[in-house]
Amino acid sequence: MKSKGFIPYKGQSYSAEETQKRAKSYYDYMNARRSLRFFSNKPVKKSVIHDLIMTASSAPSGAHKQPWTFCAIQNTVMKSKIRIAAEKEEYENYHGRMSEDWLEDLSAFGTDWNKEFIDIAPWIIIMLRKSYDLIDGKKSKNYYVQESAGIAAGFLISAIHNAGLVTLTHTPSPMNFLSNLLDRPSNEKPFLLLPVGYPTEDAVVPDLERKKEEEVIIWFD
After folding, report:
1. Buried/exposed 37-71: b ≥16 CB within 10 Å, e otherwise
2. Domain coordinates of the chain in residue numbers?
3. Which of 195, 200, 210, 214 has the most CB atoms around it within 10 Å of its CB?
């Protein structure tokens, strides 16, 4: 049955065998994804960043409100300002705000308050969630904003990996300084900071394992 405002769905359809093959292939591909802190300054085209962000913006959202804005930053002066402000907050985190348990859990990653990747990576993407929209000066409510932004962030990370690039999910807390530096309106709140680029030739990652299937799946066959 067709209704006004609807159009035919034109999706992909595969045989059962091809479906299984594609599911396993994509799992293997994504399971090789890693968060990285060692970025090359090798340039990445603006058009690539555009397509990555538009992939993220294709994510599902509450009532199709698409409650997000992405700031793509290549400007070295702006990146430097962001790094200085982010390191100020992170220094406070590592020297008093974080609990001993939190610091212990982070020790395996070899991370600290220094965030030089903000300067080095060719692009920084700041994702902001929109608690409401402003239409002709009036507030328009958005729904499931946190959940929608999280899904879009996942789309973005997957797209970055698919392009042969690397990223890191960085959440310098509190993040209000990003709103001020980027001159964003009050309905937009920083959600995530992602450096995007190529890895250095000598990049390393922690020797970690992901949870096994029995730890993350409960079957009700």
Report:
1. bbbbeeebeeebbeebbebbeebebbeebbbbbbb
2. 38-199
3. 195
**Amino acid identity at 134:** L
Tokens describing residue 26: 């994509």
Structure tokens, 147: 């959940």
**Helices 16-31, 145-162: inter-axial angle, 10-degree rounding:** 90
Handedness of CA 97, 100, 101, 102 (dihedral sign): positive
Six token digits for residue 40: 């090359």
Query: Which class is 38-199 in CATH?
Result: alpha beta
State the amino acid at position 120 in one-letter form. Answer: I
- By the 10 Å C-beta count (0-12 exposed, 13-18 middle, 19+ buried), 210 is classed as exposed
Measured between alpha carbons, how far is 103 from 80 in angstroms, rounded to an integer? 26
pTM to 2 decimals?
A: 0.92
The CA distance from 35 to 196, in Å, is 11
Give the residue from 168, 186, 154, 92 showing the smallest Cα distance to 123: 168
